[in-house]
Amino acid sequence: MKHKTIIEPFKIKMVETIQMTTQQQRKKYLKEANFNPFMLKSDKVIIDFLTDSGTSAMSSEQWAGIMRGDESYAGARSWEKMRDVIHDLTGFQYIIPTHQGRAAESILFTLLGGTDKVFISNTHFDTTRANIEYSGATAIDCIISEGKIPSSTYPFKGNMNIDLLEQNIRKHGPENIGAVILTVTNNSGGGQPVSMQNVRDVQAICRKYDILYLLDSCRIAENSYFIALREEKYKKWTYRDIATEMFSLADGTIMSAKKDGLVNMGGFIALKNKEMADACTNLLIIREGFATYGGLSGRDMEAISRGLVEVFDKDYLHYRIRSTTYLGDKLLDMGVPIVRPVGGHAVYVDAKAFYPHIPVEHYPGQALVCELYIHGGIRSVEIGSVMFGKYDVSGNLIPAEMELVRLAIPRRVYTQSHIDYVIETFGFVKEHKENASGFRITYESEFLRHFTAHFEQIKSN
Ligand code: F0G
Which CATH architecture has domain 60-310? Predict the structure, then answer.
């Protein structure tokens, strides 16, 4: 029999209480948080879809590993285990442990960056871009045009635009390109996958111009699932073999293990080139810790070693992607506009299309984020003009390209009934959507304002 019900391929051994709240209470909490869910205490949230990063539930095997962690400063057993697992998976010889993804970025781009350098990616994630720009270098995104159209159902919307990549290399000169970074899946572009063909095409260009080619691999297991699903040639491959093949085409990788590493903290750099790895290790020792632990405890390294194996389990990945797709499909069925096709780790709602009566200057994404919290205690994040908006010289808003709300799903944390609860909440929010009103910002910081901004609701008459 073929079952339709999605079941979690795990049993629950330990539970964490969710504090249930009433709508009345949530209205008060949201007001106290100045209508910015980043300022909410987590125990006032029922379903936390703020991020899939560092929020995974660990398995009993990972917890058992935690007890076995070797906390020696140098040459820890747990380090050897983590190093070997990463080496086997990626094929890269030199592994550098860091406490999370941006620490890896900071080390690598300090070395590769600088004022004359240019980095090219499908889409740079915010911290990647920030670390590149902080070094004085320039970050350029070259996503295919389908990747910018929320309603396009192209199967690999995370792909790099190869022509644009080559044009940019010629324009800036191959000697000035610090690296080409392919982000798999493409988080900032809707969690969309990159095809193996594209990984290969980017390699060919990098070889042609002798440019360093890196993967940002924090969601590579989810990307591998999509390759097996949508690229004929890889239909029968294991997800892990697909990932290994992707790594084999690149010169190195940076990974935040807080995503597909299934851990709460951790990351690494893995490289082919010894000289580059030695230079990274020197910086690592200054900034993060000794070469055999980076910023990690022995127990963290045990958890990563195990997580990087578990994430490629076929039943786990099947459930993971089906569950995210289920949420997206149900929202589509009820007429909620979302970025299509549904990506791996999150569903992105097009708030501008959902609330056509709220102008972008009044932040429709923030309005949806607040409605979801008030009616369901669901915490999500605006990825639109609150996050990326700028002002022109007269102080008018230059809006972001899209007004999205991201529902990022923590791994192995919520059950199908939690997902159904979210769908039900959307039903209510949609039914009452003309009552939703926009916001104005009453306080903002100069950088990364979305984390700390205060808002005031614009009451309609
Ligand atoms: N690269 C990508 C593609 C990411 O999504 C992230 C983090 C990082 C690098 C940085 O890793 O957080 O360990 O320092 N993304 C999180 C998110 C924060 O919510 O999407 P980190």
Answer: 3-Layer(aba) Sandwich (3.40)
Question: What are the residues facing 143 on neighbouring strands?
Answer: 160
Question: Which atom of ligand 1 is nearest to 186's Cα?
Answer: 3
Which residue's C-alpha comes closest to atom 9 of ligand 1?
101
Cα of 68 to ligand 1 centre, how many Å?
Answer: 28
Ligand 1 closest atom vs CA 381 = 19
Q: Which residues line ligand 1 (CB under 6 A)?
A: 51, 53, 100-102, 125, 127-128, 183, 187, 216, 218, 256, 258, 267
User: Which protein residue's CA is at the shortest distance from atom 10 of ligand 1?
Assistant: 101
* Centroid of ligand 1 to alpha carbon of 51 (angstroms): 9
Domain limits of the chain?
Answer: 23-52+313-457, 60-310
10-residue block means of pLDDT along the chain (461 residues)?
92 96 98 96 97 98 97 97 98 98 98 97 93 96 93 95 98 98 92 97 98 98 98 98 98 98 98 98 97 97 98 97 96 96 95 96 97 98 92 93 95 96 98 96 89 91 49
* CATH hierarchy code of domain 23-52+313-457: 3.90.1150.10
With the most atoms of ligand 1 within 8 angstroms of its CB, the residue from 121, 125, 182 to mutate is 125
